[in-house]
Amino acid sequence: MKIKNILVNHMSEPLGFDLKDLRVEFSLDADSSESVQKRLSIKESSSQDTVYDSGYQAYENNYFLPDFALQARTRYDLTISVQSASGEVSASSFFETGKMQEEYQGKWIGNPNKDLANTLFKKEVAVSGEIKRARLYASGLGVYEAYLDGEKIGDEFLAPGFTDYQHWIQVQSYDLTSSMTQGKHDLLFSLGDGWYKGNIGFEGGQENTYGDQQRLIAELHLDYADGTSQVIVSDDSWQTTSGQVTKSGIYYGEDWDASLPIENWQDAIVLDYPTSVLTDRLSLPLTIADQLPVKEILHTPAGETVLDFGQNQAGLFEFFNDEPAGTTIIFEFGEILQGGNFYRDNLRQARASFHYVSDGQPGWVRPHFTYFGYRYVKVTGLTKEIRPDNFRADVVYSEMAMTGSISTDNSLVNRLFDNIIWGQKSNFFDVPTDCPQRDERLGWTGDANIFSNTATLNMNVFEFFKKYSRDMAIEQESRDGMLPMYAPSLGHQEGGAAVWGDAATIIPWNMYQAYGDDAILRQNYPAMKSWVDWISKHTTTPKLWTGCFQFGDWLALDGENPGLPTGKTEEDFVASIYYCYSSKIVSETAKLLGFKADADFYAQQAAEIKQAIQAEYLTPTGRLSLDTQTAYALTLYFSLAKKEHEKRILNDLRKRLDKDKDHLKTGFVGTPFLCQALSEYGAHDLAVKLFLNEDYPSWLYAVKHGATTVWERWNSVLDDGTISPEGMNSLNHYSLGAVMEWAYRYLLGLHDHTPGYQKVTFAPKFDYRLKQVRGHYQSSYGDLRIAYQLESDDLHTVKVQLEIPFGQKVQVKLPAASQFPILVNGKEMSNDFTLGGGNYEICYQPDHDFIGHYQPESSINEIMADDLLVEKLSQVTDTIGFFKNPDNQKSFGEMSLAKVNSILPFINISDEEMKEINQILTTTPLLSERKK
Fold it and tell me: Which positions are annotated as active-site residues?
């Protein structure tokens, strides 16, 4: 046995985080047949007093919920022990609290000149003896970096993160024990404007949103080996001056003149700001997760020198400076080339540049108080030879472990999945931003909502969304429950739209489903209720949501007015569905948390809203009044139709897709659910067809056009390689990547699960176009690994491999497995069985093969491209000869034979002949399959 991956509140060894909802979980390598008991012991580190001991208890799950009074600024050592008949094993970890509710001794301090672009604060610290423990607690606005003896403290950037600073400011905790040796040390803080004071916001932004002066608060606690202690606090004994950064901004970039002398130090002033808004951190640190080398140095037709890093991403940029003192070097950042030249017009008003004046000292240089979204960097001003290894792209995102991935035998699909993950990395930047490059980068609620399930599968995002859920709740508090379009809102009042506002309920609920932890639900339950109640107060139609501003199916392609990006699906229909769904979530949450009256009230409300939707939009025979892909997909996904009408809704969706030539018309709302609805209700083949389309509009269209992240629009880049002229056009915008949830659920087979993934239903849907699929998802129980292959031998066998971690149960439901036995590690099984932890090889012969055949809906063009099929059909009908005429094939080639027969009377294929034609079609393997 071996204990692994001990997490405290979903983090490894957290220091200074808000830990009031304490949860300790672990994974275990053990024989699944063993009877296991678990135990958690927690000691206060300095005294070694035991503050919690669960005692040995039966292993029913992999977590503990220790309940004891945490103390401020205290480290706790924890030990998890597991015993069985084969012995006992233990593993240790720790966590440490921050300031909690402890009163701050430090004061907010500033420079007398509030207009400084870069404020420095310093304090000389004299250490008089051997240090047992040293902790720095600090926060600075807008953003700050701390240095001890010239070395940066910690590995995170842009602390303290992005919040509504009027309501909460996060404090960071740093362990300086090993650095605080006896003698004198220089403690320095450097501050920039950041989101707090700099230009930020939609449509050009605004300055001084939350304040007009950079400020710092800090406490350095020193505990000596002799038992004495010392606290150095920020006050008017600190010195302050202006730094070398002459201007910085999230959109602007940074101007750094390293040749400027740092002088004219003066006493800092104490500022009259409250400390009551200071809190232990929730934000995961923004750290460098990867460094990308230059892929190619380009010399463009316009005479520019451009670095190509080969991957669109977000973060910092570094270069090795060996330029003479006074040399000015300019770096500009962009996502795409146009005509082979550097391009940045889609960044709108974001300057997104780094200007550096050399001090003549060789060394690596990076900006401090900004970040960029880019693939390409235009370089100006270097006087020496440009070498690729003198540059690197620092990929920065909130510190989240990767948990899942999928790969297939289709390279374009694999690139799409990579793009989706890169989009998540680029935009999970303390808040879930819409894009990382232009003058926006805001925490848009709708984008976060629709992608949240996919996010949980790709990365461990619980704490990330716990912080963002608090951002949302704070915005709701001053708006009677209404959630703005983005959070933090920068003081803007716009909002209250379906899907976007429903992030208030859906994100906390999705996090509970993924992680089995109700901490966010408990944190946000009042806000969840207040959102649904706000809708009830503001709708103009009882039990439907009408009369409010709505985004509709944002950026859908079926809108009747090209100037309106809301799509053709009626906005009130979308809104009412989400009103119903949010009411249901509040009811389920209330039930989970023990609020019975609320559970009953909102359950009744959800039922009444559903009835009202059915009365308004569905006829008694099940016809939906809205003929759009999104409307059908939402109706199926949210189970709005009566059971007996679901088949009709699916058939009508098929007809709608046929009219749309089996291509996407959906926008932000419909896209996450279209393939899921098709696969769940029996049209997986059509879902795969949509997914694998390579021409516009499709997911793979972007991949075919060189995308390395997901685009904001289906055609952000046009067929000729030019960027779409729309003013709102990001090439790194994760929303449409929500299709990856469908891939995890239906391609990989992680179809269903209990909250936290202790029980999983593995039910893949096979398709001949993706014969090899493998992937994994690492929950707190461990890594569930899946691989399958559809063999094309005479028996058409299916081979599946499962690696299941200890403590997890997987119910296996295999497609087309009713006639022949299933071999599991050589043992015969019937379908629908459950496996515990272990490695399994599953092999069976399906009821039918997974080779692609022609269908009655196959187009004339497909048929005429296959000589063998043409020969077979020519024996049934002379009609085939009609299409050997190129003009006739051009006119009718996109139609099926049945469609042509219905509109051209002289074709005159009889019903009996059509049955025979369909029999030939469905038994003839596709030409592409035969070539294999």
Answer: 440, 712
